[in-house]
């Protein structure tokens, strides 16, 4: 692997662990809730929302050691970071952030905006 590719992976790893602030078990617990399953966009003909499916993939990634991560894993990590940053920039609702669709959607992607 080239030095540039290694640096890129290091940057993605760092960004991912800053953006995805939930543990694998916390993501899994959230994905099992009706709130998790009630948010997000669904492809025609599919029953599972995109974000819910992405959350399951994040759990797989979080269970891996850094040396076990593939190029596909790093691409998915980058995708998750982008999603979290875009949705945090929206600011969320002014009231009842705790029980908002905005929060549930972010949590599907591994980020709890209420977590310190």
UniProtKB/TrEMBL annotation:
Compositional bias (Basic and acidic residues): 43-54
Superkingdom field: Bacteria
InterPro entries, per database record: DUF3140
Location of the region described as Disordered in the Swiss-Prot/TrEMBL record: 35-54
One Pfam family in the UniProt entry: DUF3140
Alphabetized PANTHER family for the sequence: DNA-BINDING PROTEIN, POSSIBLE DNA-BINDING PROTEIN
Descriptive protein name: DUF3140 domain-containing protein
Organism: Salinarimonas soli
Taxon lineage: Bacteria, Pseudomonadati, Pseudomonadota, Alphaproteobacteria, Hyphomicrobiales
């Amino acid at each position: 692997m080239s030095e540039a590719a290694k640096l890129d992976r290091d940057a993605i790893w760092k960004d991912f662990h800053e953006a995805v602030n939930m543990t694998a078990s916390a993501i899994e617990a959230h994905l099992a809730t009706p709130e998790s399953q009630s948010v997000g966009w669904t492809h025609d003909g599919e029953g599972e929302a995109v974000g819910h499916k992405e959350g399951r993939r994040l759990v797989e990634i979080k269970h891996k050691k850094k040396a076990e991560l593939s190029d596909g894993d790093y691409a998915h990590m980058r995708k998750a970071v982008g999603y979290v940053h875009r949705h945090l920039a929206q600011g969320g609702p002014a009231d009842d952030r705790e029980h908002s669709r905005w929060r549930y959607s972010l949590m599907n992607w591994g980020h709890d905006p209420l977590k310190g």
